[in-house]
Design brief:
Elements lengths: L1 H10 L14 H6 L6 H25 L4 H14 L3 H22 L13 H11 L4 H23 L4 H14 L18 H8 L1 H4 L2 H4 L1
């Protein structure tokens, strides 16, 4: 029962981690004319999901391995995520999840986490403690990425709720995770230079909507 309760909690847009309010650079791309229509948003979102499969998910799954590997993977993730906006959001959401662990797990001891841990790492350790399988963990992270970006797109007026539901289903089907889609954490890589540039430029264009 804990597995089902946790799935509903993690996937619920009301789960208070703040991801739904972080546009991940989408706002800047729209303002600069890089994304102008539904087709452009679809291509953008598919790229973001593929980035998650090559970077985030390998580290998410590494949190279920030996303690030595967890520590090494955590250090590598922290060193690789240096884009200021992404780093700030990752740590803020990681801390939010840490604060909720007593409610979710009944305790937080034994996770080997501290107040500077990134969301991917906290979530990976949490799901490992709940004995989630790799496909379940990967699919949850993929869904969260898709959900948060479509939520941001709706707030920016790129698409309506009906189109959002449709595109969520399309992307999730097209990007279903498998072990062959993600490298091991030691070979994980980032590949979205344009998106990193968008997040870096977000300081000047970050709206009150996404700050609140």
């Amino acid at each position: 029962m804990n597995h089902h309760f946790s799935m509903m909690q993690f996937a619920d847009s009301a789960f208070p981690l703040g991801g739904f309010a972080f546009s991940n650079g989408l706002e800047w791309l729209v303002k600069q004319g890089w994304i102008e229509d539904l087709e452009g948003f679809y291509d953008y979102l598919l790229q973001i999901v593929h980035q998650a499969q090559s970077f985030d998910i390998p580290f998410l799954l590494a949190m279920a391995k030996s303690e030595a590997e967890v520590q090494a993977a955590s250090k590598r993730y922290d060193l690789m995520l240096q884009v200021p906006g992404l780093r700030k959001a990752s740590i803020a959401q990681g801390r939010a999840l840490l604060r909720m662990l007593p409610t979710l797990l009944g305790q937080r001891e034994g996770l080997g986490l501290d107040e500077t841990t990134h969301l991917v790492l906290v979530l990976g350790r949490t799901l490992a403690s709940l004995e989630w399988s790799e496909p379940m963990a990967a699919e949850l992270w993929t869904y969260l990425i898709i959900r948060d970006q479509t939520s941001a797109a709706i707030r920016l007026g790129i698409l309506g709720p009906g189109a959002a539901i449709h595109i969520q289903g399309q992307i999730f089907t097209a990007a279903t995770w498998s072990p062959f889609r993600s490298p091991p954490w030691s070979q994980a890589y980032r590949m979205t230079a344009l998106n990193d540039m968008a997040v870096t430029s977000h300081g000047q264009l970050y709206s009150k909507l996404f700050q609140n």
